[in-house]
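Issue 218. Parser rejects a valid record. Input:
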Amino acid sequence: MSSKQPELSPIAPGGRAGRASRALDALERAGNRLPDPALLFVVLAAVVMALSAALAPLQFSEIDPRSKQPLQVQSQLSGKALTEFLSTMVQTFTGFHPLGVVLVALLGVGIAEHSGFINAGLKKLLTITPRPLLTPMLILVAIVSHTAADAGYVLVIPLGAVIFQAAGRHPLAGISAAFAGVAGGFGANFIPSSLDPLLQGLTQAGAGILDPKRTVNPLCNWFFSSASSLLIIGLGWLITDRFIEPRVARMPVDAAPEQEPRMAELTPREARALWAGLAAMAVCVALLVAASAPQSSPLRAPGGQLTVSAAPLMSAIVPVIFLFFLIPGLVYGYAAGTFTSHRDVIGGMSKTMSTMGYYLVMAFFAAQFIYLFNKSNLGALLALKGASALKAMALPSAVTIVGIIVLTAVVDLLIGSASAKWALLAPILVPMLMSIGISPELTQAAYRVGDSVTNIITPLMVYFPLVVVFCQKYVKSTGIGTLMALMMPYSLTFLVAWTLFLLVYWQLGLPLGLDAPYVYP
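Output the parser choked on:
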C-alpha cells in the first residue's frame, strides 16, 4: 500500500493487556471458525424452525403485550407456516429494510467516490484536522448520524476506513471507531431523532397501564443522551487509539491499489472542482431547509414535527442522502474532468453495485432468518421470560436499573430492533418500576443504554454482515470473529462505564430531559 501504517508498539505479552489480547485472539479464532455469515443464517433458521416446533405445544403464563393473550410459540414446521414462508420468500428479501437503505445510499456515494469528490474532500479535511483528533471527530459524526436513521451504517462506517487510511492509519481502526459510534453509542445523541418519539410512545403506553393520565415527553432523555455522547466519544477515542490500533497494526492491508486514497496535493483544477461540489452540496442543504421550514411543509408530520418517524422527511432520508452525494459528485466529476460523459456516471454506479454481490447473498439469508425468528415468537418469549424473572427478584432500585440494562443487552443479541424490544419490555418494566417509585423516564434511559452496547458484537444485527464486507475490502481475511474481537472492548467498556454513568447521573439528580422526574409519582 502507498500510505504508511503507524508505527505502534506490539501488545505486551504479559500483564492485563496481554491477557486481554490473548482472550480476544481466542474469540477471533472461535468466531472465524463459524460458518460463512450466509450459511450461519441458514443454520440459525433451521434451529429456529426446530425449536419453535418443539416449544409450540407448551403453554406459557407470560402475556404477550401485543395481543393481550398468553404468549404462544408458533411452529415454523407446520404445513401452513412452511407454505407462508415459501410464498413470501421473495417479498421477505425485497422488503428487507437494510437492503434498500444500503443499495440506494451507496448509488449516490458511489458517484461521489468514483468522481473523486470524496477523495478531494478528505484531502482538504486532513489539512485542517490534526491527526490525533481524527478519532473523536469520526465518533462524533457517527453519533450525530443517528439523526438520519440508518445512514451511519452505509455512509460513516466506510468513510471512517477511508479517512484513517488516508491519514496513514489502519482502515480497520477507522471502521471500528465508526461502528462503535453508530451502533455501540446508539442511545447517545446531541440531536433529537425519530427514535425519541418512537420509544416515548411505547413508554407512555406502558405507564398508562398503571396511571392512564401519566404523560411522557418525547425529549425526556435528551439531556442524558447528550451527556452520554461525551462519554461515548471519550471512551471510543481511548479504546481506538490505545487498544484497537495496536491490535490491527499486525493485520496487513491487502486492498487493491486503485482502492487506496490518493493523497497527493490537489491540483488547481481539482481545488476549483471541490469548491464547486461543496457549493452544490450547500445549495442542496439550503433547498432542503427552505422546503422543510414552513409549518405546512409536506416534509413534516401532521403535527408539524420533522424528526418523528411519521414525518415524510424521515421516510425520505435515504433518497435525500443519495441526492446529496449524487449532485456534488456529478458537479465535481465534470468540473475536474473525471466525468466526460453519462457513461462514466453509469459506470461509477455499476462499479459500486458490483461490490455488493456478497452482501446481497448474506442479506437474502439474513432476511429469511429474521422472518422465521419473528414469526416463531421465540424472541418475545426470551424477552418476557427475562422481564418476569427480573420482576420476581424484587431487587433494590439501583440494582433493578442495572438488571434492566443487562436484560436489554442480552435480548439485543437476538432482537436488533429497538422499538420491537421495547414494545415487548415496556408494558412489563415501566409499570413494575413505577410501583416501586421509579419514573418511566428513568426506566427508558436504562433501556437505551442496554439497547446500544451489544449491537456491535452480535452477527444477528442486520448491518453486521455489511460491516464485515467493509472490512474485507481492506483485509480480505476478515471474518465474523475478527469483527467481534475488534468490537468486544468497546462493548464491555460501554456496558460497564455507561451503566455507572447513569447511576452517578441519577444520584447527582441531573435532569434526564424535558419533564423527566426520577421518581413516581
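Fixed in the parser; the record now loads. The beta strands are 63-64, 69-70.
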